[in-house]
Amino acid sequence: MRMVLCPLFSGSSGNAVYVGTGRTGLLVDAGLSGRVIEQALSAQGINPAGLNGILITHEHIDHIKGVGVLSRRHDIPVYANEKTWQAMQDKIGPVPLRNQRVFDSGGDFFIRDIDVVPFPLAHDASDPVGFCFYSRGKKAGVATDLGHVSQAVLDAVTGCDILLLEANHDPDMLMHGRYSYELKRRIRSRRGHLSNEDAARALIKLHARGLRRAFLGHMSAENNMVELLEQTVRSVLAEEGIRVGRDIEIAVAHRDRASVPVVVGE
To answer: Which band of pLDDT confidence, cut at 50, 70 and 90, is reported for residue 266?
Structure first.
């Protein structure tokens, strides 16, 4: 059975990722309006009312803006850990108790035929997580808002057939940009966001563990450019003898529209 990963939106202005099989459809985060996400899903041939769950990585608004609307409109369960529920509940509006699902960040759980495995992150939120998804021997992962790539994160996403990995900013653009000093410091901290080179260094380690396909996402509109991101990653990988397009397939996830879905499996 095939598994699909499709970043619908991936960037500082809003995030939503579709993960699905023939039987199950999941949304990781819903950081834009419900209407915009519905339109993006429909454009991919996905009925929003058919979603089996919305999984929340953390409570920042670029990840939860449309959660409440989508859940209420389509009767979709929302999955988050306890601290994230506490931090986001007032921001998303009422969600019926039957659709409030609380998971333990240290354990996996099933949604129909997908085994969902959360893993802790170092981002500056209440209890942030990434997710890996297993189905019929295939594995997909979503790892953004990382702060830094710890050994635990590397171990969690090892074995992914397709991975969405953060590549948020270029350090020079960030430091010479219009953000406040405090915001710049937060972004560059070990609880902030990965730079382009950080992402490339992580890809080198993951390629050695077998990764062959990845999206680079959560790209800043202010502090990054697609061409610069691609150039940096290609250059850093090339230093290790890894050629993009030959040894590993990489695509930059769009900030403002859906990316071409990646399908793994039969």
So the answer is: confident
Look up residue 149 and give its two tokens. 């790539």
The per-residue pLDDT for 258 is 97
Token pair of 208 as six digits:
């050695």
Instruction: Give the integer Cα–Cα distance in Å for 74 and 96.
Output: 12
Cβ atoms of 48 and 32 within 8 Å: the answer is: no
Assign 3-state DSSP to the chain and report helix, strand, coil percentages, each to 5.
Answer: 30, 30, 40
The model's pLDDT over 24-66, given as tens digits with 9 standing for 90+, comes to 999 999 999 999 999 999 999 999 999 999 999 999 999 999 9
* pTM of structure: 0.97
CB atoms inside a 10 Å sphere around CB 18: 21
| 156-175 average pLDDT score | 97
CA 148, CA 165: separation in Å to the nearest integer?
11
Which strands make up the sheet holding 100-103, listed edge to edge?
A: 100-103, 78-81, 53-55, 25-28, 14-20, 3-11, 262-264
| CB half-sphere exposure, 15, CA atoms < 13 A | 31
Mean pLDDT for the stretch of residues 84-104? 97
Strand order across the 138-143 sheet: 109-111, 114-120, 129-135, 138-143, 162-166, 213-217, 249-252
